[in-house]
Structure formats: C-alpha cells, structure tokens
Amino acid sequence: MPRPTAAQLAYGSATVVVSTIAMLLLSRTSTGLGVAVISAAALALGLLVALTVPLPRRRGRHAARTGASRAAAGPVAQEGATGDARVPEPRTASAEHPVHH
Fold first, then answer.
1. Shortest CA distance to 15 belongs to which of 34, 43, 39, 51?
2. Smallest Cα–Cα separation from 6: which of 56, 72, 61?
3. Is the pTM of this model over 0.90?
4. If you ran DSSP here, which 8-state letter would residue 60 be given?
C-alpha cells in the first residue's frame, strides 16, 4: 500500500477534528460510551475522506495520455462510418523535418 500524501493526511485529520467537535456539540452527550461512539464514527469518517482524496497522477512515459495531450499529438486514428478505426499513413522523416542545404 502506498504512503498517504500530505493532502490525504490533512483532509483526513481535519475531518476527524471537525466532525468530532460537531457531533459532540450536536448530540450533547456526556457519557463515556457516547463520546467513544462519536469518536469512533469521526475516525471512520476521517479515514474514508483520506482514502477518497484523489491521488496525484504519475508523470512519465507510463502515464496515460489525457485528452489535451492527445489533441496536441495529432490524430492517431479516425473513426470510420462503420465504426472501425483506420490507422493513418506512416510519415517519413523527410516529410516531418525537411532538410535545407
């Protein structure tokens, strides 16, 4: 399991503190059992929030290409009328980088 990021720790901790205070104030409990139940619920909620914070995307050659980078890279395949993908013609090096003498 990967280590939690700073954002996950911050969101989870803030959720635990805020939800504990809010539930204690709203329930007005004074028994030890009530405080224990509220604390356990706040801890579970904080853990849920920390685990659902989106992880940062990996950058590198193994990262998935986004829509913007696909558009910048040019057309890879075009959708035909029948639904089949057509592969564009391969480019030659001389067509991409003309040599001027």
1. 43
2. 56
3. no
4. S
